[in-house]
Design a protein that fits this description.
single chain; alpha/beta; seven-stranded mixed beta sheet; 8 helices
Amino acid sequence: MSVEVQSLREPLTAGAHTLSLHISETQIGKLMAYVALLAKWNAVYNLTAVRDPQHMLTQHLLDCMAALPAYSGARRVLDVGSGGGLPGIVLAIWAQQAEPGMTVHMIDTVHKKTAFLTQVKAELDLHNARIHTGRVEHLHVDTPFEVITSRAFAELKDFVNGSGHLLAAGGKMIALKGQSEVSDKELAALPTGWVLDKRERLTVPGLAAERHLVHLRRQPA
């Protein structure tokens, strides 16, 4: 692990404290190891536009960590378009101790990205992670997911149309968004039977930009 990545320990620990997250030294170590792997693979495979590990801390780790309480209590979570593992890998690291009954599935269409996720799973011993390669529209599972999430889809309708068939009854879909508001036009474009449950503003330590969670649910038939 590089000196630059090792220097993340203190701000990462401080950020977790600010977010009122109980993160163990083991989890801190795994999060730092994840950043090291992300930086290493990123040099060849372009997993993220963020290159500096210091910026990865704020824009990736802490950004995803701020959303973690929204997943509390879920046993099966699907991260759609996981890319470099955001929020899926961060969620899996946190859940190993905070939510030991949770399994985190990650899916992406790009093989080099799921190869990276598979490597991270192996090196960080994330037994609660499952990796899938392919389009989410074609994913079929025996047990549906209580939470389906994404940090990559630009349009809510695409998020719902692509993965809504995998949601359990009474489940929720959570989109990590940057803009302050979801437009009325975007909400109006949601498929019939889907509604906005709530918007949740996040405060990310060290990040000036606004971040929000958009919770969607399926109306009862």
